[in-house]
Amino acid sequence: MKNLIFCLAIFFLFASCNDDKKEEAEEPEVSNIQKEWWKEAVIYQIYPRSFKDTNGDGVGDLKGIIQKLDYIDSLGVNMVWLNPIYSSPNADNGYDISDYRAIMDEFGTMEEFDLMLSEMHKRDIKFVMDVVVNHSSDEHEWFQESRKSRDNPYRDYYHWWPAEKGEPNYRYSLFDPKGEAWKYDSITNAYYLHYFSKKQPDLNWENPKVRQEVYDIMKFWAEKGVDGFRLDAFQFVSKDTTFPPLPEGYEKDVIKYYGMGPNLHKYLKELNQEVLSKYDVFAVSEGAGSNFEDAHSLVDADRNELQMAYHFKGMDVGNSLEGYKLSEFKEVYTKWDSAFAKEGWLSIFLANHDVPRMVSKFGIDSPEFRAASSKMLNTFILTMRGTPYVYYGDELGMTNIGFDSISQYQDIVAKNGYEKTINEGGDIDQYMAELKFLSRDNGRTPMQWDNSDNAGFTTGTPWLPINENFEEINVQTQNNDPNSCLNYFREIVKLRMENPVLVYGDYQLILPDNKNVYAYTRELDDQKMLILLNFSTENTSIELPEKFSKPELLINNYSEVQRKNSKLTLKPYQALIFNY
Ligand code: NOJ
């Protein structure tokens, strides 16, 4: 059985939209030009464990981020999102929070957090806090109390199923070695629900006290001055808490049966009123429901709920060792753009801490094409409509590490999946091959700063090995090379920041049937840009339509453009942007 692919598919189904019920709007619509600062941002995502360690314990820390703020500033980005930095036993690297008002010891102190925030603000860099409230850690005081007795005041902070009612109806857990989301707890002879690992019990949002706790926590951070919130796994906070049996074929629309529950919008309006409307902040939901309609219901401005969402359709592309087809990639991004052209706002990203490195998945990480393909992919992210999220290290073209042995992996998903495959008598070689490509650890290896020991990340032993290509792929080397991925990235961020057309302009796909080249235009009033991206290793010639007869070159990831009249030949992974 294709175990890992299956788990990943379920993971993304959990997070992603099933836009089969498409509201096809292939024609470009009039732009949504309601201007907002968070639409104009370029967000740099940092996995704090892996960015910069200053105390030699092998784990990145807040001081390290402070030390590197000038670097972040030099990229031209104007917002940073950090994965969770709260106190946590780290069953899922911080996505299991034991105290929402404290900083994880390994990362530093609250004073360091305050300093980091003010140093960011001094540089006009805004800050997004990860908020993980579909579940807490089982080591959170709330859960410790909740499990003590059935009449404990915290009992209803979580979902409990008394054993005398029989076994609860099946629910799938993403991170459980047996795939079971109900865990029996003998202390009170009851089961508790955990969609993720057993150390991440789901909070019961039906309980108004839980909701108030969350709003208070968010206000605590908003008072400190954070500028945004990323709401982890948020579509799952509202569930059908009668937990009925799952109907036949539920796998086709997992979200509908696991989340997007009847009260989600009530909670979101409350959250908006209690927190978001009171501060100059925005919130982005991880996940966007089951279809365009769901996604609109989360983010359309007149609903007063959230400002932005990530859909995961783009991440569903290419989740296999066979790779992906450009036609599918184009189709996903074109449909999602047109569905949100008039109203609503989304994120644009090709990687994060849950997926392989962008260049290894969508480009090619061999020495010949790595740099060109990484530059081309960053060109895509920074020229699409939606707020771009760039994952740390992708500005350098960092690649998958590709471990061979299970002992090298740290991620709970990799380890539990291994156990599950063994328990079920699955094909372990197939599992390991898939893991090598798709594991979340691929995207979590330490930042490559220079060519000294441990890539300048730590003086100790890094918590996850450094990719051995660090001597070639690192900040120091690329800083000194005008043609590096890093310097190209700075150029393209600057272009986005200086040209509202790249933020707000209408998008239109051209040359839809070209198998190698993704070509599109962005137009806003009289500003018009043409973007040509070769997603292949082949030289590819295209005929430019008449209206592009006098294009003015703005960006090129090669030194030349091969053009004869209307015929233009793109080199492997060439990226070009023109004014026309
Ligand atoms: C989504 C996060 O991105 C992922 O890293 C985490 O494991 C799960 N939510 C559970 O919090």
Kindly describe this structure.
With 580 residues, the protein is an alpha/beta fold. The chain has 3 domains: 38-135 and 208-409 and 441-493, Alpha-Beta Barrel (TIM Barrel), CATH 3.20.20.80; 141-193, Oligo-1,6-glucosidase, Domain 2 (Oligo-1,6-glucosidase, domain 2); 505-579, Sandwich (Immunoglobulin-like), CATH 2.60.40. The chain has 18 helices and 21 strands. The strands form 5 sheets. The protein has an 8-stranded parallel β-sheet with strand order 11-10-9-5-2-1-13-12, covered by helices on one side. The protein is globular and about 80 Å long. Mean pLDDT is 94; it is low at 20-30. The protein binds 1-deoxynojirimycin. 1-deoxynojirimycin (NOJ) is lined by residues 92, 95, 132, 196, 232-233, 286, 353-354.
Short characterization:
By secondary structure, the chain is of the alpha/beta class.
Task: Please describe the structure with a list of short key phrases separated by commas or semicolons.
580 residues, TIM Barrel, Oligo-1,6-glucosidase, domain 2, Immunoglobulin-like, 8-stranded parallel β-sheet, binds 1-deoxynojirimycin, glycosidase
